[in-house]
């Protein structure tokens, strides 16, 4: 059908019409809110991520999560921040049963119970003195991350978080076989009901910079390109997702989100039955904040447009630092 019989603008003539036929809708229930937790003190602003804080395990954290729930954001993922003096070569603070993330999980689950779904990131970069995501070895004068020793520590960390009350553990280190090792360990300890959200297609991206400042997790030498994915590859993500699903992942993830919308769509097209998360990462967040602070963009409209695009590409849930602001703005209605 051609013009003048076909006039697509008729369906854009008013907001009521546009809302009636919209294909994609955002809801606060779509969001997983990342929270940085630290052992003690007061809340601490994160310079690289305006509006974000490191929260002490205590009443301030509880009040912040209460605010999240009041806005309809009922899922959080926790990242630990610890002082440099307690870090070591094997990241032992990460799997300490009395560590910061375990304490935060216990506090939140005891306070909110099933009103709040708690995800715990499983990695070692926040806890190693070298900043890499696993156990570093030397061979022939070159360093490398020992895959098989690292996944054993991930499994240990996952069991600690499950024992603290986490609903999901989220391995993010991109080690081969990490999901299988964690699933085996969880089941062996009776945590059959604890789910795994796997960072299945996590790219070696420059968009993680503000996070590494927030979590003090930048590598002291080298980079992470030997274990995170090459940004030039899309179909490789299908192999990684397939392996994680076979190993027992309950949710798979693409990270980052905005620069990898094609990968989100590719994964969802090939695995439409698999719940898919996408991580709207720190660099994506901070760029919006920086541009908005200069008056270059409308933060509200741009943020909701980005999150809508991520969901439209195929994400079922979105990890985003914008979660609370976006939830407030959605109460006002969509700006489109």
TrEMBL record:
Catalytic activity field: 2 5-aminolevulinate = porphobilinogen + 2 H2O + H(+)
Binding site for 5-aminolevulinate 2: 282, 321
UniProt cross-references to CDD domains, sorted A to Z: ALAD_PBGS (cd00384)
Recorded GO MF terms: porphobilinogen synthase activity; zinc ion binding
Catalytic-site annotation from UniProt: 202, 255
NADP keyword on record: no
UniProt-annotated binding residues for Mg(2+): 240
Residues where 5-aminolevulinate 1 binds: 212, 224
Residues given in the record as Zn(2+) binding sites: 123, 125, 133
Family under the similarity heading: Belongs to the ALAD family.
Protein name according to UniProt: Delta-aminolevulinic acid dehydratase
Organism: Pyrobaculum ferrireducens
